[in-house]
Write a structure and sequence with these properties.
Layout: H1 10-21, E1 28-35, E2 45-46, H2 50-58, H3 64-72, H4 78-86, E3 92-95, E4 101-102, E5 109-114, H5 115-120, H6 122-146, E6 151-153, H7 161-175, E7 179-180, H8 183-189, H9 199-203, H10 208-218, E8 223-226, H11 232-250, E9 255-260, H12 265-278, E10 285-288, H13 294-302, E11 309-312, H14 314-317, E12 327-336, E13 339-342, E14 359-365, E15 371-378, E16 389-392, E17 400-403, E18 408-411, E19 414-418, E20 421-422, H15 429-441, E21 458-460, H16 462-475
Parallel strand pairs: 6-7, 6-11, 8-9, 9-10, 10-11, 15-21
Antiparallel strand pairs: 1-5, 1-12, 2-4, 3-5, 3-19, 12-13, 14-15, 14-18, 16-17, 19-20
């Protein structure tokens, strides 16, 4: 991976330099990465981007050219530039594995490190995790709407730059997409690639039939034809059927399917299915595309469309209806007077008041393995082996809930980097996708609704709740 240490905001380095000059390079701090709201008022998010975050952290260093650039800013004293030259990440990083379902206010990543090091990684961490989590979540929603139908990511041409296209393809696969049109993503991440032809191929021939015949001769094993260049029902599908019959006659291949990229997808797909079946091409599949998202797919399927595969581009890779995840990275503890002192940010907006201390997240599962809620607790906090667990609303002190003793418990934050060294086995991308699908299987249906999903409860443990209340009172 290329050195991305300068993928940061200037104020991060002014703070890091200031910490050095003030003698704070050994002072440990704890930061939490979390988000406050689920995009599009959805029921869940899918954590993604950890692999790239690991690569970034392990490659932190300032090249000589970086130091020359920083020197040219005439902002940093020579001794600060010398400190930058030797700076590496030596701390601890805990995170939820990619593909884990996550919810508002709970730590997704926890960083405990010398203050300058923990501060340095903020911008890149947010850049990597916010985008990939956003797109993986969007992909999961689209795949839920598509049901058992495969979803193919088609969005690189509309993505936010080359890296946006690459990262979006990876995150889409984590969210459940089966393949991508992006060859660089295919090569880089091992994602299956799909694609055949565009309207320009059809228009470059003297007739639509000639264009289909030429494609069928060159690629007889991958003959999925785009049929809406001129007239879908009167020329596109009949010409595709003609080519399919020719392939069968020559015993070279078969008509794999057709793609509909415009018009009334419900009506056209139903008519197309009849025409294909009547001509003996029952196995030919219909791929639908054209500015699709989860809402359109859900609607089209409810209308009885006969679409087998969904090609989703712009609205997936840009998360068109919600272009950003509001993830934040907040200080929650710092070493003072011989121990890690909890800290919190107080705001007039209760949702922006943070949870103090070094924390872990415990997930509860019922007897059917369904996820029933998460409880944020202090790192040293434990629950009794027997008996129920009481948890408190993070904002409203008069609301609490109790988890039965028979519910299974799981800590979802796990060690990734310890003392600067990787201690985590990196899973393959198919393994990560499998983890997403398993998580979604254990999320109750009411949390997966596109409209008015049931709220998944994230609560505070008793000690954390009391500590937060005490710090709030002391801040007045």
């Amino acid at each position: 991976m290329a050195n991305m240490t300068l993928l940061t905001d200037l104020y991060q380095l002014t703070m890091v330099g200031g910490y050095f000059l003030l003698g704070k390079t050994k002072e440990k701090a704890n930061f939490d990465y979390f988000f406050r709201k689920i995009p599009e008022e959805g029921g869940f998010c899918v954590a993604a981007g950890l692999e790239q975050l690991i690569d970034y952290i392990q490659n932190i260093h300032f090249d000589p050219e970086d130091i020359d650039y920083l020197k040219s800013l005439e902002l940093f004293p020579p001794e600060v530039l010398d400190y930058f030259r030797e700076l590496r990440f030596t701390g601890d990083l805990y995170a939820v594995p990619e593909g884990t379902l996550v919810f508002p206010q709970e730590p997704i990543v926890r960083v405990t490190a010398p203050l300058p090091e923990a501060q340095l990684i903020e911008t890149a961490l947010l850049n990597i995790l916010n985008f990939q989590t956003l797109i993986a979540t969007k992909a999961a929603r689209i795949c839920i709407a598509a049901g058992d139908d495969p979803v193919v990511e088609f969005g690189v041409r509309r993505a936010h730059g080359p890296d946006g296209g690459l990262s979006a393809a990876r995150a889409s696969f984590i969210g459940g997409a089966r393949a991508t049109s992006n060859l660089m993503a295919g090569r880089t991440f091992g994602i299956p690639v799909r694609g055949t032809l565009a309207h320009s191929w059809v228009e470059s021939f003297s007739s639509e039939l000639e264009s289909f015949q030429a494609y069928g001769k060159i690629y007889p094993k991958n003959c999925l034809l785009l049929v809406d260049t001129y007239d879908t029902l009167r020329s596109g599908i009949p010409n595709a059927l003609e080519v399919g019959k020719e392939l069968r006659k020559r015993k070279q291949g078969d008509l794999a399917g057709i793609r509909l990229d415009s018009g009334d997808l419900t009506f056209l797909s139903r008519e197309a299915r009849k025409m294909l079946d009547e001509a003996g091409f029952e196995r030919a599949r219909i791929l639908g595309s054209s500015d699709l998202d989860e809402w359109l797919i859900e609607s089209i399927k409810k209308q009885g469309a006969e679409i087998d595969i969904w090609g989703v581009g712009t609205r997936l890779v840009t998360s068109y209806s919600c272009p950003a995840l509001g993830g934040v990275y907040k200080l929650s503890a710092i070493f003072e007077d011989g121990y890690m002192r909890p800290k919190l940010k107080v705001s007039d907006d209760p949702e922006k008041t943070t949870n103090p201390g070094i924390k872990k997240v415990v997930r509860f599962y019922d007897e059917r393995k369904f996820m029933r809620g998460d409880v944020i607790v202090l790192q040293e906090e434990t629950f009794p082996e027997e008996g129920p667990v009481k948890a408190f609303h993070p904002l409203l002190s008069h609301i609490s809930k109790t988890y039965p003793s028979h519910f299974k418990r799981e800590e979802i934050l796990i060690p990734i980097i310890k003392a600067g060294k990787l201690v985590y086995r990196r899973p393959s991308l198919p393994e990560i996708q499998g983890h997403t699908l398993q998580n979604l299987k254990y999320l109750r249906p009411e949390h997966k609704r596109l409209q008015n999903p049931h709220i998944y409860h994230v609560s505070l443990g008793e000690k954390l709740f009391q500590q937060k209340q005490e710090l709030l009172k002391a801040s007045v």
